[in-house]
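Exercise 3.2. Students should predict the tertiary structure of the chain below and write it as C-alpha cells, then compare their answer with the key that follows.

Predict this chain's 3D structure.
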Amino acid sequence: MRFVPKNLTVRVLIGLVLGILFGCFFPEMGAELKFLPDFFIRLIKLVIAPIIFFTVSLGIGGMEDMKQLGRIGGKAFLYFEIVSTFSLALGLVVVHWLQPGAGFDLSHVHAVDISTYTKAESTHGLIGFFGSMIPDNLVAAFAKGEMLPILLVSVLFGLAIARIGVPVRPLIQTFERLNRVFFGIVELIMCLSPVAVFGAMAYTIGKFGLVSLLPLGKLVASGYLTMALFVVLVLGGIGLYFKFNIFKVLRYIKEEIFLVLGTASSETALPTLMGKLEKAGCSKSVVGLVIPTGYSFNLDGTSIYLAMSVLFIAQAYHVPLTFFQLLYILGIMMLTSKGAAAVPGSGFITLAATLASMPGQLIPVAGIALLLGVDRFMSEARSVTNLIGNTVATVVVAKMEGEFLDQGAF
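Answer key:
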C-alpha cells in the first residue's frame, strides 16, 4: 500500500495521533482497546528473557579479564546512585517551587481503594527485594519473566563460560546465532507497534478523558517540565562532559521514545534499544550488563515522579516540611526506590513505603489515592525518562571503560 509510510517512527506517530483522536470522539470504543497494547507488551516480553540471557552470557563469556566485570558493575552502580540522587533532588526542588498541591480539593481522596499498594508495601523491603533476585529454579527465572532473576542466571552462565574457556567456545557461536534469531523476531513484532500505540492512546483518552487532567493538570505539567529539564540539563551536562550530544542521542532512539510514549512501558523498547546501542559502538558486555540492571536500579523518571508525588501530597494535606525533613525524604527515597524496583505497580508501592517511613506518618499514606487518576499520563513521561537515562548510562559506562567505538551516532 503506497500511502503507508515505510519509516516506523512516522507510523508510530500516526498511530499516536489517531489514537488520541479516536479516544476523544469515540471514548466508549476507545476504552475497550486496552487489549491492543497489552497483547503487544506480552509479545515483547516473549523475547526479553532470551535476549537478555544471550546478550549478557555472550558479553561476560567473551571477557578475557574477569576484573572488567567488577569494574563495569561498580561504575554502573556508582553512576546510577549519583544520577538518581540528582533526579530526586530536582523533583523536590521543582515541586517545592511550583506548589502544584497548594489549594487542592481533597473531597474525593477516600473514594479509591489503596489497600493493594499498602499491602504490597508491607511485604516488600530491601531484604525481600534481594531475595527475589534468586529464583526457585532455573526454569522459574525465565517462566516468570522477572528481570533480576534472569540477569543473575545470565551472569552466572557467562562467568561459567569464561571460566571453562576453550571447551565451550562452540557454545558462544551457537548463542550468537540464536541471539540474531530473537532480534529478528523483535523486528517482526515491531511492525505491530503503531497498532499498539493507537490502542494505548485511544484507551487512555477514552477511559480517563482529557478533562480528568484538569484537577491535577498542574502536577502533570510540573512532572513533564521537570523530566524535560532533567534530560536537557542533567543528562545533557553529562553528555557534554563525556563528549556526546544528548540531542543526537534522542534523535538516534526516537523510535523507542515514541513507542514508550505511546505504550507507557519502557519494557517495549528494551530489545531494540540494546541492539541500537551495540550498533552505536557500545560493547556487548557493557550493553548486556548496564541496560538490564538499569531497568531495575536506574529509574530516573520514576525517582522524579516519587519526589514530586510526596511533596504534592504534603502540600494537598497542608503539611509543612522543614529543610531537614526534605533531606530525610530524599534519603528514604534513595532506599525505597531500589527496594521495590522490580515489583509490579512499583511506583505506588514505593510511594506508600516512603510515606509510611516518615516519623509519625507525617504525610498520610491515603494521599496516594489523589494520584491514581493521572498515573497513566505521568507513567508515559517517567517511562520515557527512564529509557533515556539508561541509554545515557550505557554510553557513559562504555566510554569510561574504553568500550565505546564511535560510529558517529552521537
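Discussion points: Residues 67-98 form the longest helix (32 residues). The CA atoms of residues 43 and 70 lie 33 Å apart.
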